[in-house]
Design brief:
By secondary structure, this protein is of the alpha/beta class. The protein is about 45% helix and about 15% strand. Helix 8 (about 225-235) links the parallel strand 6 and strand 7 (about 240-245). The chain is globular and about 45 Å long.
Length: about 270
């Protein structure tokens, strides 16, 4: 098996759309997989080459490839992303990352800027822990308790966290899907990803963004509140911010039409440039 084939299997890479079209790479958030993009990708499948993948330990990736030392920080997940880009021959792509993948995409773009032309970050956060005057949304002790719950009652952790992340209690089927996604992830890999996500501090990386970026902020998001999006916009050069008038941390699932509308102009710019 070639190196590219190994990556395709390891990260469950799937490519669709016209081969010669501009490329969009979609990266899922913590506890999720590429299937979470199914309400978004149809809008681009006729005009763009679409690259989907799962981080190691998530979805249909090769669980046997999980390495605790590699995935102890977001750098390991950025390496997954760059490996996928190399195997899929990705250059000058629009990167669309949900939640922590916004920061993973930023780290990857700093390492290899030629891979990406722009970054679209949906509900991102560079730091989830409050550090006054910075407001991240969580106290460290609360996150430590959450990780402890993962150790002692993994199903209970998933049952608690899924509705907090998804919001939109009037649509329980979305919460159920997210909870099932949490539960289908190997607990060891999930805890590593959780620790790498919730204890990361990428605020110093924001000014390093080498390409234009779009921050898609949800007005009522329990995981990445408005203050976080405003902070990112203030500290990222060549960034724009669009606020979706909705609730929850997964607008690409709960409000795909609003998410597509928020991204429309940003995506169209790249299409014209291509």
């Amino acid at each position: 098996m070639s190196a590219d084939e190994t990556v395709f299997t390891r990260n469950n890479v799937n490519i669709s759309g016209p081969r010669e079209g501009p490329t969009i790479v979609f990266a899922h958030g913590f506890g999720c997989d590429q299937n979470m993009w199914r309400f978004i990708t149809p809008a681009y499948e006729e005009t763009h080459r679409i690259v989907l993948f799962d981080y190691v330990g998530c979805g249909k990736s090769d669980a046997g490839a999980f390495n605790p030392s590699r995935y102890a920080s977001l750098d390991g997940y950025a390496r997954d992303l760059l490996d996928v880009c190399e195997a899929a021959d990705v250059h000058d792509a629009l990167f669309v990352g949900h939640s922590v993948s916004g920061m993973i995409g930023l780290l990857a773009s700093v390492k290899q800027p030629a891979r990406f032309s722009r970054l679209a970050m949906i509900a991102p956060s560079p730091r989830y822990i409050n550090d006054p005057p910075y407001v991240g949304g969580f106290e460290r002790g609360d996150l430590e308790e959450l990780l402890s719950l993962m150790d002692h009652n993994y199903i209970g952790w998933a049952t608690y966290l899924a509705p907090v992340v998804m919001g939109n209690a009037e649509r329980p089927e979305l919460t159920d899907e997210l909870q099932e996604s949490f539960c289908s992830t190997d607990p060891v890999a999930a805890k590593a990803f959780a620790r790498a996500t919730f204890f990361a501090d990428n605020r110093a990386d924001l000014p390093k963004a080498p390409v234009p970026s779009l921050i898609v902020q949800v007005r009522d998001d329990a995981i990445a509140p408005m203050a976080v999006g405003n902070y990112m916009h203030a500290h990222m050069p060549r960034s724009d911010i669009t606020v979706i008038d909705a609730t929850g941390h997964c607008p690409h699932m709960s409000h795909p039409d609003l998410t597509l509308a928020a991204m429309h102009g940003f995506v169209a710019q790249g299409r014209r440039a291509a």
